[in-house]
Amino acid sequence: NGCTSTATVSVSDNKETLNVTINGAGQLTCANNSLVLTASGMPAGTTYAWSGEGTSSTKMVTTGGGYMVTATYGVCSATNSASVTSDNNVPAIGINKSNDITCSVPNVTLSVTASKAGLSYSWSTGSTQTTAVVSAGGTYTVTATDAGSGCSATETIAVLNKVTTPSVSIVGATPLNCQTREVLLSAETDIENAVYKWNNEVGTSEKLVTSSGAYSVRVEDPTNGCFASVSTEIQEVLDNISPRIDGGTELSCNQSTLTLYVSGMPGGSTYKWSDNSTESTLQVTVSGEYKVTVS
Fold it and tell me: Which one of 94, 99, 127, 249 is most buried, counting C-beta atoms within 10 A?
Protein backbone atom coordinates (compact mmCIF):
# COMPACT_ATOMS: atom_id res chain seq x y z
CA ASN A 1 0.00 0.00 0.00
CA GLY A 2 3.03 2.20 -0.15
CA CYS A 3 3.04 2.99 3.56
CA THR A 4 6.30 3.37 5.57
CA SER A 5 7.19 3.81 9.21
CA THR A 6 10.39 4.46 11.11
CA ALA A 7 11.55 3.09 14.49
CA THR A 8 14.45 4.43 16.61
CA VAL A 9 16.36 2.85 19.51
CA SER A 10 19.10 4.35 21.67
CA VAL A 11 22.11 2.09 22.56
CA SER A 12 24.24 3.30 25.45
CA ASP A 13 27.86 2.32 26.29
CA ASN A 14 27.61 0.87 29.73
CA LYS A 15 31.01 -0.84 29.85
CA GLU A 16 32.49 -1.01 33.33
CA THR A 17 35.74 0.78 34.06
CA LEU A 18 37.96 -2.07 35.23
CA ASN A 19 40.93 -1.65 37.56
CA VAL A 20 43.25 -4.53 38.46
CA THR A 21 45.60 -4.25 41.42
CA ILE A 22 48.60 -6.42 42.33
CA ASN A 23 49.18 -7.33 45.94
CA GLY A 24 52.15 -9.15 47.48
CA ALA A 25 55.00 -7.27 45.84
CA GLY A 26 58.03 -6.69 48.07
CA GLN A 27 61.63 -7.76 48.53
CA LEU A 28 63.19 -11.15 48.03
CA THR A 29 65.81 -12.18 50.60
CA CYS A 30 67.73 -15.32 51.54
CA ALA A 31 65.26 -15.77 54.39
CA ASN A 32 62.25 -15.10 52.13
CA ASN A 33 63.23 -16.31 48.68
CA SER A 34 59.80 -16.28 47.01
CA LEU A 35 56.76 -13.99 46.80
CA VAL A 36 53.20 -14.60 45.61
CA LEU A 37 51.71 -11.79 43.52
CA THR A 38 47.91 -11.66 43.54
CA ALA A 39 45.76 -9.81 40.99
CA SER A 40 42.56 -8.47 42.59
CA GLY A 41 39.71 -6.02 42.02
CA MET A 42 38.20 -7.85 39.08
CA PRO A 43 34.78 -9.50 38.80
CA ALA A 44 34.32 -13.23 38.75
CA GLY A 45 35.01 -14.79 35.39
CA THR A 46 38.01 -12.63 34.69
CA THR A 47 40.96 -14.24 32.95
CA TYR A 48 44.55 -13.27 33.57
CA ALA A 49 47.76 -13.17 31.61
CA TRP A 50 51.04 -12.46 33.46
CA SER A 51 54.22 -11.33 31.80
CA GLY A 52 56.49 -14.27 31.25
CA GLU A 53 53.91 -16.92 32.04
CA GLY A 54 50.92 -17.55 34.27
CA THR A 55 47.18 -17.40 33.70
CA SER A 56 45.76 -17.53 37.19
CA SER A 57 45.10 -14.64 39.50
CA THR A 58 48.34 -15.44 41.39
CA LYS A 59 51.94 -15.73 40.33
CA MET A 60 54.91 -16.98 42.37
CA VAL A 61 58.14 -15.11 41.70
CA THR A 62 61.68 -15.95 42.83
CA THR A 63 63.66 -13.23 41.08
CA GLY A 64 63.54 -9.48 41.30
CA GLY A 65 62.17 -7.38 38.46
CA GLY A 66 58.99 -5.89 37.00
CA TYR A 67 55.85 -8.04 36.66
CA MET A 68 52.74 -7.12 34.62
CA VAL A 69 49.29 -8.67 34.56
CA THR A 70 46.47 -8.17 32.05
CA ALA A 71 43.00 -8.94 33.37
CA THR A 72 40.26 -9.54 30.77
CA TYR A 73 36.55 -9.54 31.51
CA GLY A 74 34.51 -10.08 28.37
CA VAL A 75 35.78 -7.53 25.86
CA CYS A 76 37.13 -5.31 28.61
CA SER A 77 40.61 -5.50 30.05
CA ALA A 78 42.84 -3.78 32.55
CA THR A 79 46.60 -3.86 32.99
CA ASN A 80 48.85 -3.16 35.96
CA SER A 81 52.45 -3.84 36.99
CA ALA A 82 54.43 -4.29 40.18
CA SER A 83 58.12 -4.21 41.02
CA VAL A 84 59.87 -6.88 43.09
CA THR A 85 63.26 -6.05 44.57
CA SER A 86 65.88 -8.50 45.83
CA ASP A 87 68.49 -8.52 48.56
CA ASN A 88 69.73 -12.09 48.42
CA ASN A 89 73.38 -11.68 47.60
CA VAL A 90 75.53 -14.01 49.72
CA PRO A 91 78.40 -12.03 51.31
CA ALA A 92 81.91 -12.81 50.12
CA ILE A 93 84.27 -13.61 53.01
CA GLY A 94 87.81 -14.89 53.53
CA ILE A 95 90.11 -15.77 56.45
CA ASN A 96 93.66 -14.58 57.04
CA LYS A 97 96.01 -16.19 59.59
CA SER A 98 98.92 -14.49 61.32
CA ASN A 99 101.09 -17.61 61.33
CA ASP A 100 101.06 -21.34 61.99
CA ILE A 101 101.54 -22.88 65.44
CA THR A 102 105.24 -23.06 66.40
CA CYS A 103 107.24 -23.20 69.64
CA SER A 104 107.89 -19.46 69.35
CA VAL A 105 104.33 -18.63 68.19
CA PRO A 106 101.98 -20.69 70.40
CA ASN A 107 98.90 -18.56 69.55
CA VAL A 108 97.65 -17.68 66.08
CA THR A 109 95.12 -14.96 65.25
CA LEU A 110 92.54 -15.67 62.54
CA SER A 111 90.91 -12.62 60.92
CA VAL A 112 87.85 -12.60 58.68
CA THR A 113 87.55 -10.29 55.67
CA ALA A 114 84.11 -9.48 54.23
CA SER A 115 82.68 -7.76 51.19
CA LYS A 116 80.27 -5.72 53.31
CA ALA A 117 79.97 -4.31 56.82
CA GLY A 118 77.37 -5.10 59.43
CA LEU A 119 77.68 -8.88 59.35
CA SER A 120 77.51 -11.11 62.42
CA TYR A 121 80.07 -13.88 62.87
CA SER A 122 80.17 -17.32 64.40
CA TRP A 123 83.51 -19.16 64.61
CA SER A 124 83.95 -22.85 65.25
CA THR A 125 85.98 -21.75 68.29
CA GLY A 126 82.92 -20.06 69.78
CA SER A 127 84.09 -16.52 69.03
CA THR A 128 81.57 -14.04 67.64
CA GLN A 129 84.12 -11.35 66.79
CA THR A 130 85.87 -10.63 63.51
CA THR A 131 88.92 -12.45 64.91
CA ALA A 132 89.57 -15.72 66.71
CA VAL A 133 92.72 -16.80 68.57
CA VAL A 134 93.70 -20.48 68.36
CA SER A 135 96.50 -22.39 70.07
CA ALA A 136 96.33 -25.74 68.27
CA GLY A 137 96.68 -26.89 64.71
CA GLY A 138 93.50 -27.89 62.88
CA THR A 139 90.72 -26.71 60.60
CA TYR A 140 88.67 -23.68 61.64
CA THR A 141 85.47 -22.24 60.12
CA VAL A 142 83.58 -18.98 60.36
CA THR A 143 80.03 -18.23 59.26
CA ALA A 144 79.08 -14.65 58.39
CA THR A 145 75.37 -13.70 58.39
CA ASP A 146 73.60 -10.60 57.10
CA ALA A 147 70.79 -10.03 59.58
CA GLY A 148 68.82 -7.92 57.11
CA SER A 149 68.64 -10.46 54.31
CA GLY A 150 69.34 -13.66 56.20
CA CYS A 151 72.10 -14.47 53.71
CA SER A 152 75.17 -16.24 55.10
CA ALA A 153 78.51 -17.58 53.92
CA THR A 154 80.98 -20.01 55.48
CA GLU A 155 84.76 -20.11 55.02
CA THR A 156 87.38 -22.59 56.27
CA ILE A 157 91.12 -22.32 56.95
CA ALA A 158 93.78 -24.81 58.08
CA VAL A 159 96.29 -23.92 60.80
CA LEU A 160 99.37 -26.12 60.75
CA ASN A 161 101.11 -27.48 63.84
CA LYS A 162 104.84 -26.94 63.29
CA VAL A 163 105.91 -27.84 66.83
CA THR A 164 108.68 -30.42 66.35
CA THR A 165 111.33 -31.01 69.02
CA PRO A 166 114.83 -31.45 67.55
CA SER A 167 116.81 -34.60 68.19
CA VAL A 168 120.28 -33.95 69.63
CA SER A 169 123.16 -36.00 71.03
CA ILE A 170 126.75 -35.35 72.09
CA VAL A 171 129.56 -37.45 70.67
CA GLY A 172 133.26 -37.45 71.55
CA ALA A 173 132.87 -37.46 75.34
CA THR A 174 136.03 -39.32 76.34
CA PRO A 175 137.92 -38.90 79.63
CA LEU A 176 140.88 -36.59 80.04
CA ASN A 177 144.15 -38.17 81.15
CA CYS A 178 147.83 -37.45 81.19
CA GLN A 179 148.14 -38.06 77.44
CA THR A 180 144.75 -36.61 76.41
CA ARG A 181 144.50 -33.09 77.73
CA GLU A 182 141.66 -31.91 75.49
CA VAL A 183 138.47 -33.43 74.08
CA LEU A 184 136.38 -32.18 71.14
CA LEU A 185 132.67 -32.53 71.83
CA SER A 186 130.26 -32.48 68.86
CA ALA A 187 126.50 -31.95 68.92
CA GLU A 188 124.67 -34.04 66.33
CA THR A 189 121.14 -32.99 65.30
CA ASP A 190 118.63 -33.33 62.49
CA ILE A 191 118.13 -29.54 62.26
CA GLU A 192 119.70 -27.49 59.49
CA ASN A 193 121.23 -24.14 60.47
CA ALA A 194 120.62 -24.92 64.13
CA VAL A 195 121.57 -22.46 66.88
CA TYR A 196 123.89 -23.97 69.51
CA LYS A 197 124.46 -22.94 73.12
CA TRP A 198 127.10 -24.76 75.16
CA ASN A 199 126.57 -24.20 78.90
CA ASN A 200 124.36 -21.19 77.94
CA GLU A 201 126.99 -19.64 75.67
CA VAL A 202 126.30 -19.30 71.94
CA GLY A 203 128.71 -21.39 69.89
CA THR A 204 128.98 -23.84 67.05
CA SER A 205 128.19 -27.54 66.86
CA GLU A 206 131.61 -28.28 68.45
CA LYS A 207 133.23 -27.41 71.75
CA LEU A 208 136.84 -28.00 72.79
CA VAL A 209 137.04 -29.19 76.40
CA THR A 210 140.21 -28.98 78.47
CA SER A 211 138.86 -29.58 81.96
CA SER A 212 136.57 -32.11 83.59
CA GLY A 213 132.96 -31.31 84.47
CA ALA A 214 129.42 -31.26 83.11
CA TYR A 215 128.79 -29.91 79.62
CA SER A 216 125.37 -29.29 78.10
CA VAL A 217 124.29 -28.16 74.66
CA ARG A 218 121.00 -26.55 73.68
CA VAL A 219 119.99 -26.91 70.02
CA GLU A 220 117.29 -24.63 68.62
CA ASP A 221 115.49 -24.79 65.28
CA PRO A 222 115.46 -21.20 63.95
CA THR A 223 112.39 -21.88 61.79
CA ASN A 224 110.02 -22.60 64.67
CA GLY A 225 111.83 -21.82 67.92
CA CYS A 226 111.70 -25.43 69.14
CA PHE A 227 114.72 -26.64 71.09
CA ALA A 228 116.17 -29.61 72.94
CA SER A 229 119.03 -29.97 75.41
CA VAL A 230 121.40 -32.80 76.32
CA SER A 231 124.37 -33.01 78.64
CA THR A 232 127.41 -35.16 79.28
CA GLU A 233 130.08 -35.49 81.96
CA ILE A 234 133.79 -35.31 81.18
CA GLN A 235 135.92 -37.26 83.64
CA GLU A 236 139.62 -36.73 84.31
CA VAL A 237 141.48 -40.00 84.83
CA LEU A 238 145.10 -39.44 85.91
CA ASP A 239 147.47 -42.34 85.43
CA ASN A 240 149.33 -43.54 88.53
CA ILE A 241 152.76 -42.28 87.49
CA SER A 242 155.73 -43.42 89.58
CA PRO A 243 158.93 -42.24 87.90
CA ARG A 244 162.19 -43.81 89.05
CA ILE A 245 165.69 -42.45 88.37
CA ASP A 246 168.22 -45.10 87.46
CA GLY A 247 171.84 -44.98 86.26
CA GLY A 248 173.73 -45.03 89.52
CA THR A 249 174.10 -42.93 92.62
CA GLU A 250 177.86 -42.72 93.26
CA LEU A 251 180.77 -40.99 91.54
CA SER A 252 184.32 -42.34 92.01
CA CYS A 253 187.79 -42.19 90.54
CA ASN A 254 186.82 -45.01 88.26
CA GLN A 255 183.27 -43.65 87.62
CA SER A 256 183.57 -39.90 87.04
CA THR A 257 180.32 -39.64 85.04
CA LEU A 258 176.88 -41.04 85.60
CA THR A 259 174.08 -41.17 83.05
CA LEU A 260 170.79 -40.77 84.87
CA TYR A 261 167.58 -41.89 83.16
CA VAL A 262 163.92 -42.30 84.11
CA SER A 263 162.24 -45.69 84.29
CA GLY A 264 158.59 -46.69 84.53
CA MET A 265 157.14 -43.97 82.29
CA PRO A 266 154.93 -44.46 79.22
CA GLY A 267 156.02 -43.40 75.80
CA GLY A 268 155.39 -39.80 74.91
CA SER A 269 156.30 -38.51 78.38
CA THR A 270 158.11 -35.19 78.72
CA TYR A 271 160.92 -34.47 81.15
CA LYS A 272 162.30 -31.52 83.03
CA TRP A 273 165.41 -32.00 85.14
CA SER A 274 166.52 -29.76 87.97
CA ASP A 275 169.00 -28.06 85.64
CA ASN A 276 166.04 -27.30 83.24
CA SER A 277 167.24 -29.77 80.61
CA THR A 278 164.44 -31.67 78.88
CA GLU A 279 166.14 -34.78 77.56
CA SER A 280 165.15 -38.19 78.83
CA THR A 281 168.68 -38.63 80.28
CA LEU A 282 171.04 -36.44 82.29
CA GLN A 283 174.85 -36.59 82.39
CA VAL A 284 176.10 -36.03 85.95
CA THR A 285 179.75 -35.28 86.88
CA VAL A 286 179.19 -33.48 90.15
CA SER A 287 177.76 -34.94 93.29
CA GLY A 288 174.48 -33.55 94.57
CA GLU A 289 170.73 -34.04 94.44
CA TYR A 290 169.04 -34.30 91.06
CA LYS A 291 165.31 -34.12 90.44
CA VAL A 292 163.20 -34.75 87.36
CA THR A 293 159.55 -33.83 86.68
CA VAL A 294 157.73 -36.13 84.27
CA SER A 295 154.47 -35.36 82.55
Answer: 127
